[in-house]
Amino acid sequence: MYGKIIVPVDCDKIERGGSILKRAAALLNDGGEIVLLSVVEPVPAYLTIDIPQDILEGAVADSKARLEDLKARSGIAATVEVRIGPPAHEILAAANEHKADLIVIASHVPDFSNYLLGATADRVVRHAECSVLVDR
User: Per the confidence metrics, is the pTM higher than 0.85?
Assistant: First the structure.
């Protein structure tokens, strides 16, 4: 069905990542590829003076380790990638760079803040150039 699938995972909600990874594997063509992606948001400049400088590197390493663990536990072959930036932007950029056919993304029941700011999944759905499957 799909040759290249991007599976963005919020490492703070890693259990949801297992669910969407399995769904992506079920939709993958023989010989296709899954890119298991996590995005670390950068620390705002006005906060950088109050926190250790290596916190971003630590967050990237932690995200990569969690994705590798998720991949190992699931037994599903995937490429692991960690990016730094605004989540929706980086998910869309990864999909474009990898020429993805599909993005499989988890979502949650929206709360009031989502109506004001919008959720990452909402932004990805609105701006993706490929198909997007939203798993609730």
Answer: yes
H, E, C per residue of 91-116 = HHHHHHHCCCCEEEEECCCCCHHHHH
Residue 49: DSSP 8-state: G
CA–CA gap between residue 135 and residue 25 (Å, rounded)? 14
Q: Which amino acid is at 1?
A: M
CATH of residue 100's domain is 3.40.50.620
For residues 40 and 54, give the distance between their C-alpha atoms in angstroms, rounded to a whole number. 13
Say if residue 49's pLDDT is above 90: no
Amino acid in the structure at residue 69: D
What are the φ and ψ backbone dihedral angles of 121, each rounded to 5 degrees? -60, -40
Count of domains for the chain: 1
